[in-house]
Amino acid sequence: MSVTRAPAHWACAPLKTSVPNARHQARREIESAGFVAPDSDAAYSIELAVTELVTNAVHAFANAASGRSVRPASLIDVCLRWTSASVVVEVTDELPGVPTMCPTSADDESGRGLALVALLGTWGVRPTPVGKTVWCEIPYEARGVAC
Ligand SMILES: Nc1ncnc2c1ncn2[C@@H]1O[C@H](COP(=O)(O)OP(=O)(O)OP(=O)(O)O)[C@@H](O)[C@H]1O
Ligand SMILES: [Mg+2]
Questions:
Q1: To test the ligand 1 pocket, which listed residue (16, 53, 59) has its Cβ within 8 A of the most ligand atoms?
Q2: Is this model's pTM higher than 0.90 or not?
Q3: Greater confidence, 95 or 2?
Q4: Could you tell me which CATH class the domain 8-139 is placed in?
């Protein structure tokens, strides 16, 4: 199956409310693209990756804003790119800091987001001129045709 759908792009303000908004937007894109079943593991994985990566960018903005090392108009860009066998979730910010998967202990209350993302697919970070893009490529199986 060839995929000709244009990437879905949207921008979020660096606010907590952007996290559920981005998740809803991802759900709308999943349903409108139709490449994966709405109740499939892949669909939930896409939502989870968007949730974790946007949450991280919102936190990074809050941390940078408290140290004033951030542009006030800074936005978070989310992109879903479909290929014939995977979807790439990309979250781009203009913020300092490097996403780093850290070891956690059973008592830690946080620090597991990127470990979760790593379970969903291959992930990585690439620099942009003013920040970075954190991406996760999630494989999916094309929806079967009933016979
Ligand atoms: N977009 C980002 N910009 C800057 N630093 C980031 C970004 N994303 C992640 N990090 C850094 O990587 C660390 C690990 O992220 P991770 O999502 O695994 O854990 P967490 O966000 O601290 O906790 P949790 O996701 O469990 O609530 C963060 O604490 C932060 O220091
Ligand atoms: Mg996190």
A1: 59
A2: yes
A3: 95
A4: alpha beta
